[in-house]
Amino acid sequence: MSDLLERLRGRGWRLTSQRRVVAEVLDGDHVHLTADEVHARAVARLPEISRATVYNTLGELVGLGEVLEVATDGRAKRYDPNAHRAHQHLVCSGCGAIRDVHPHGDPLAALPADERFGFTVTAAEITYRGLCPDCTGQA
Amino acid sequence: MSDLLERLRGRGWRLTSQRRVVAEVLDGDHVHLTADEVHARAVARLPEISRATVYNTLGELVGLGEVLEVATDGRAKRYDPNAHRAHQHLVCSGCGAIRDVHPHGDPLAALPADERFGFTVTAAEITYRGLCPDCTGQA
DNA sequence: ATCCTAACTTGGACTTTGTCCAAGTCAATA
DNA sequence: TATTGACTTGGACAAAGTCCAAGTTAGGAT
Ligand SMILES: [Mn+2]
Ligand SMILES: [Mn+2]
Ligand SMILES: [Zn+2]
Ligand SMILES: [Zn+2]
Question: Which of helix, strand or coil describes residue B62?
Fold first, then answer.
């Protein structure tokens, strides 16, 4: 993730303390934070950072393909820095926990041509749902 | 969908004009309306129906398994009356159009045991993304 | 080292989507 | 047709996100 800052500089970004902090917060490969969670953690390091800047920066990172937007429920979007290895998500219906998972095969291949209705289909996102070990116990 | 009203009566529902109208609006198998779209169409038939009742009724139908909630973007949830035949969704990234699709194979089968992290996995939702015929033209 | 300025950040107003509640209405049973 | 608990209503409230005018600053130019 530290080379993320390099890549951004290469793209002509001004390296502000705000952007640095957002990048730090997103560090790690199994992180799926909401914008407000990113903001809360950013504030811990840089108390005056605003919500607007967090939203702006996340949006820019998504636009550059450095971060993925994940909408597994109808609630707040989650921001996923693991943008460079294709993966899917396993979500606990009890507590909302999210894990990265790697199903085998190409999910696109399962959609036959006569089910594509003339669309140019470019991606398939799979959300697996179930109960995590903790939530399986207390029904 | 007219037997939906029968099923609901069987479950002890009061058959109010509001619920009847919401059921009528949801009639059809390839409909994916937002709550506000349902409300707008319901108002056309029953001008005094409230947003709260539309939300209540949709929530109840989802709870009964008669309607599915679909969250394909980070925007408003869509309500899908096609709850009795398993299917997935193909979404146009340009205009948001949604089609029901039926990929072959069991999507759950693609997730190996060592990628389940102790979860009891019960469902897999696939969102295929691409451009519809109309949007493929004007880049 | 200092200046300059387009790019960036900020707080708050605003929008969209959805929830909640107290008060009023009505469907269904008797 | 009387009763009553289920249902509906409007509006207040909340969560998630967008937008903007005004202020600040990173980084190139001097
Ligand atoms: Mn992920
Ligand atoms: Mn559908
Ligand atoms: Zn859980
Ligand atoms: Zn389209």
Answer: helix
All domains of chain A, ordered by start, with CATH?
A: 2-80 (1.10.10.10), 88-137 (3.30.1490.190)
Interchain CB contact of B120 with A (< 8 Å): yes
Please report, as a single letter, which amino acid is at residue B111.
L
Could you state, in chain order, the average pLDDT of each consecutive group of 10 residues for chain B (139 residues)?
Answer: 81 95 91 97 97 98 96 94 95 94 95 97 97 85
d(CA A7, CA A3) in angstroms, rounded, equals 6
Task: Let me know how long chain B is.
Answer: 139
Q: Report the C-alpha gap between B135 and B139 in whole angstroms.
A: 7
Strand D, nucleotides < 7 Å from a protein CB: these are 6-11, 15-20, 25-27
Give the best residue of A69, A120, A131, A136 to mutate against chain B (max B CB count within 10 A).
A120
pTM greater than 0.85: yes
Q: Please, which residues 21-40 of chain A have a Cβ atom closer than 8 Å to chain B?
A: none
Let me know the angle formed at the C-alpha of A74 by A64 and A72, rounded to the nearest 5 degrees: 55
CA distance A103 to A78: 21
User: Quick one: three-class SS letters along chain A?
Assistant: CHHHHHHHHHCCCCCCHHHHHHHHHCCCCCCCEEHHHHHHHHHHHCCCCCHHHHHHHHHHHHHCCCCEEECCCCCCCEEECCCCCCCEEEEECCCCCEEEECCCCCHHHHCCHHHCCCCEEEEEEEEEEEECHHHHHCC
A75-134 residues near strand C (Cβ < 7 Å): none
Report d(CA A63, CA A69) in Å as an integer: 10
Burial of B49 (0-12, 13-18, 19+ CB in 10 A): buried
